[in-house]
Design a protein that fits this description.
Blueprint (H helix, E strand, L loop, with lengths): L5 E11 L3 E4 H5 L6 H8 L3 E4 L6 H16 L8 E5 L10 H9 L5 E5 L5 H15 L4 E9 L9 H4 L4 E12 L3 E9 L7 E3 L12 E3 L1 H23 L8 E4 L4 H11 L10 H4 L6 H11 L8 E5 L6 E8 L2 E4 L2 E6 L2
Parallel strand pairs: 4-5, 4-6, 11-12, 13-15
Antiparallel strand pairs: 1-7, 2-3, 6-7, 8-13, 8-15, 9-10, 12-13, 13-14, 14-15
Helix pairs in contact: 3-4, 7-8
Length: 337
Amino acid sequence: MSQASIRAVIKGTGSALPKRKVSNAELAAQVDTTDEWIVERTGIRFRHIASPEETTATLGAAAAQSALDAAGMTADQIDLIIVATATPDQTFPATATKVQHMLGQHGGVAFDVAAVCSGFLYAFSVAESMIRAGSAHNALVIGSETFSRILDWEDRTTCVLFGDGAGAVVLSGEVGERGVLATKLHADGRHNQLLYVDGGPSTTGTVGKLRMQGREVFRHAVTNLSNVLIEVLDEAGIAASAIDWVVPHQANARIIDATARKLGLPAERVIMTVADHANTSAASVPLALDVAIRDGRIKQGDLVILEAMGGGFTWGRHSSGCETICDCHALVILQHS
């Protein structure tokens, strides 16, 4: 079969959350904030916080196994594992190799991608490209984060926004009309100081803590995500009215609402899980996608867009049936299988 005819198709999705679920009220007992303040500005009501035994690798492996089960596949059928994360278990080796070992898969390709909240869309695009090129057939794409490890728990403007978790999809190469239709990724390193971690192995020798200028991030997010959505729709030759579902990065309900309004998309076609998960960075898009597929909203044949924007800045979107959008200006449109 001709390589040009191969498309990457989502065969299964999965997710994993830490056992501990923390409410706004519980946070308000620790920092100077209130449930009302958090909900009004972000839409967040809960987040999951990892225990010392729960790591980016263990959460990623659990989400991956769930996705494999949904696809009716086993780990030995996977020849590519990509983990998108900004909070790896170790500086090296890649967390993907630890996930690979936990799944009992040995010898395939495994590596990490770092693009923060857009990381899943970046990883998704890499896997999709490798599948189209014929260098992989079945891939696990995982977004997994333990952002609680890099939060400053005395900074009420950031510590209330994030949570831990993992989401995963199984992608397989197939010939046909369904699958990923278009992707768009962007980055602009000039905005480093708007959202970053103030540490690193080659600078401070420490992990560091997350720092953010929230007002500026909000402004860039709405503009960048709206523009890249238009880009990916044009690339796929699809009108916004044809989209069944948008699965955005779950950073802030106000950003999601503002982006949808700017594009004329009805709220009932936008998947929103930020109230229960908060911002789980690279895990947020696959987590939301898994929720919407398992509760029956996203069905076979639906046209879906995934979108996200993250530190760097990076943004993107994917379009297909399902469509995927990721941080760091990335967009994927896909036909959900």
